[in-house]
Amino acid sequence: MGASFLGSVVWLSAMPVAVGITVLRYRLYEIDRIINRTFVYGTLTAILALVYFGGVAATQAVIGRLTGQDDLPQLAIVASTLLIAALFSLLRRRVQGFEDKRFYRSK
Fold first, then answer.
1. Cα–Cα distance for residue pair 99/97, rounded to 1 Å
2. CA-based nearest residue to 89, from 40, 54, 53
3. DSSP string for residues in 5-39
């Protein structure tokens, strides 16, 4: 057990205390908002990443079949990026609504 391990244990043990002091000192009683945003944007990021990579692969396959060329990554990436940009607002609202219903039923 080295000094760095002991320092890590002390730091990890002090973390919840520091968060508690910060919440009380700066009156962050509405921390549920931060947690809600974390859930929403974490879920949104995961969904958009899956759609993006799936879109790149699908677009590349479709363009490859139509044109007979296998290497057209720029066009596939541009098309997928435009799709993600169009879906962002719609998906954010839907994920936000789902999270609100699931965790904050009173809203």
1. 5
2. 40
3. HHHHHHHHHHHHHHHHHHHHHTT-TTHHHHHHHHH
Angstrom distance (rounded) from CA 50 to CA 6: 40
Domain range annotation of the chain: 30-103
Give the list of residues 6+ apart from residue 37 with CB closer than 8 angstroms, or none: none
Give the model confidence (pLDDT) of 39-72 as tens digits: 888 888 888 888 878 877 787 777 778 777 766 6
pTM here is 0.53
Amino acid, single-letter form, for residue 47: I
Burial degree of 89 (CB within 10 A; 0-12, 13-18, 19+): exposed
